């Protein structure tokens, strides 16, 4: 079950996920190109080595491409680092068109792996940028579908987006369906340019990959708890903390019981990935 902030219920496993090895901690090396998106290997993940403006432009371009399947843009933060041994999650992330650094620890690891242009790109910031850039490039508002959270949250978030003049919301769905057949059919019929999925990581990435053939074409952007930020149920950190990469402090203060264990595990995950990244990083010439 998904909690109202988009995270999974404590102790609940995600169907299709398994734990164990199978993915290397890090391959290291210089930035590589994944299509038109330069990236580096952070453990089993390919992380975009792009500044924020370039990242947003690329994601908007993905939403405008004619394609048979949707394009996936997924965030990687400490929760994803903690789930690096969950094979279904790793496979979903490896199949994404773009994986971007939504956390200071991911930026740190990407730079260790050879990235030289990567910047922290919280979905709470670039989500707005993607919608506005789509409007600027096309001259029309993006048709947007919102999926996730408890009953009513996406309706409220959609109203805020429309009032801000950044989107035409064509469909809202909560995240508690036990049978997604009809909601997915409704999504395809709505034909959004951008489908925003807030089911909580790592579940939302696995869900997207499981339903890739059933989702509408265009862009699928996972967003974690962004809907709660949009409606003001969760507050952003002061700007000074955001700019310094310490937004996690404010988030922890708001939800210590939920986020404390995640961040504690994240320290260990970041340390392990730091060691493996340094071990695999090529020696300078």
Shape: globular
**Residue ranges: pLDDT <50 for 5 or more in a row?**
1-30
Care to count the β-strands?
A: 9
Give the oligomeric state of the chains in this entry, treating copies of one chain as homo and distinct chains as hetero: single chain
The tally of domains stands at 1
Q: How many H/I helices?
A: 12
The largest beta-sheet arranges its strands as 5-4-9-8-6-7
User: Mean pLDDT, nearest integer?
Assistant: 84
Show the helix and strand layout.
Blueprint: E1 32-34, E2 37-42, E3 45-48, H1 52-64, E4 71-76, H2 78-82, H3 87-95, E5 98-101, H4 104-112, H5 123-138, E6 143-148, H6 153-163, E7 168-173, H7 181-190, E8 194-198, H8 203-210, E9 219-222, H9 226-231, H10 239-243, H11 247-254, H12 256-280
What does this structure look like?
The protein has 285 residues and is an alpha/beta fold. The chain is built from 12 helices and 9 strands. The protein has one domain. The longest helix is centred in the last third of the chain and has 25 residues. The radius of gyration is 18 Å and the shape is globular. The N terminus is likely disordered.
